[in-house]
Design a protein that fits this description.
Elements lengths: L2 H21 L4 E5 L2 E4 H17 L9 H20 L6 H21 L9 H13 L4 E10 L2 H12 L4 H8 L10 E6 L5 H9 L10 E3 L2 E12 L5 H27 L6
Helix pairs in contact: 5-9
Length: about 270
């Protein structure tokens, strides 16, 4: 090899290493085929990994920088190959990408909407007092017989008054799903049943059954009250974090209704 050849080789080698050095600046952590992976991408991916671990209940482990870099490099290699095959032009992929973009825009809007406004303890307490703190602590244990016709219900009440077994009659006559269990409804609060049913149950004395059929949208009921008890209502501090998303969802629904009222909507 003469001096001229050696000189050209040295220049090419120097250029190669110089190009590689320039590819990685202070804001880059790696490069794949000249495409930089930035420090910001690294930090974002690291946060995602930490969030996933937290959701799975795993304790925070020491940061494995090589693992994060390997994942980012693998992702970039796959992305470049996908683009090389022009998969971004595939109709199905295009539609999915648009859907992802639309979803991201909607999420960004919601994050800036009234729904994202911090929920105060005052708001939380108002909902708690109305829906939980002010709830009836009384619970009932009852059975019922459900039939379609009022006349049928009246006839069964007469048989019960003559000493027929409520449980056996429920198994034989009730059209409700609890019929096979003798009409047993277990323990329930007034809020868990339709108003007419709850009101009729509350008027009964333990061990007695309704003397008139109770009409609801399901049909006609004969109710037997077996027992009552008082439940301990949850304390505000124990449930306020569960109330928060309820308020946010309500805000979001109101926001959507407001937007719909201003929009021109056509339905075919």
């Amino acid at each position: 090899m003469n001096k001229s050849t050696l000189s050209i080789a040295s220049i090419l080698l120097a250029t190669l290493f110089t190009g590689s050095a320039f590819a990685l600046d202070k804001n880059s952590v790696a490069a794949v085929n000249g495409k930089k992976i930035t420090q910001q991408q690294y930090q974002n991916h690291l946060k995602q990994r930490q969030a996933q671990s937290a959701q799975q209940g795993k304790q925070a482990a020491p940061i494995d920088r090589k693992l994060i870099l390997d994942e980012l490099i693998n992702r970039e290699v796959l992305l470049q190959e996908a683009k090389k095959k022009k998969l971004q032009n595939d109709k199905k992929v295009k539609a999915q990408l648009q859907q992802l973009k639309d979803n991201l825009l909607i999420q960004a809007l919601i994050a800036k909407s009234p729904a994202a406004k911090p929920v105060s303890d005052k708001e939380l307490k108002e909902v708690y007092d109305k829906q939980i703190g002010g709830a009836d602590p009384k619970e009932f244990k009852a059975r019922h017989i459900l039939v379609k016709e009022e006349a049928k219900a009246k006839k069964l009440i007469e048989e019960l008054n003559d000493g027929a077994s409520f449980e056996d009659m429920a198994k034989k006559e009730s059209t409700g799903p609890s019929g096979k269990n003798g009409g047993d409804l277990g323990w329930f609060s007034s809020a868990q049943m339709v108003p007419a049913f709850s009101k009729a149950t509350a008027k009964l004395k333990k061990g007695t059954h309704s003397q008139k059929p109770v009409k609801t949208r399901f049909g006609f009921h004969i109710i037997k009250l077996e027992d009552t008890r008082k439940r301990e209502l949850p304390k505000f501090d124990d449930v306020k974090n569960q109330i928060k998303p309820v308020i946010q969802n309500k805000r979001l629904q109101e926001y959507v209704v407001k937007l719909r009222s201003k929009a021109k909507i056509e339905i075919k």
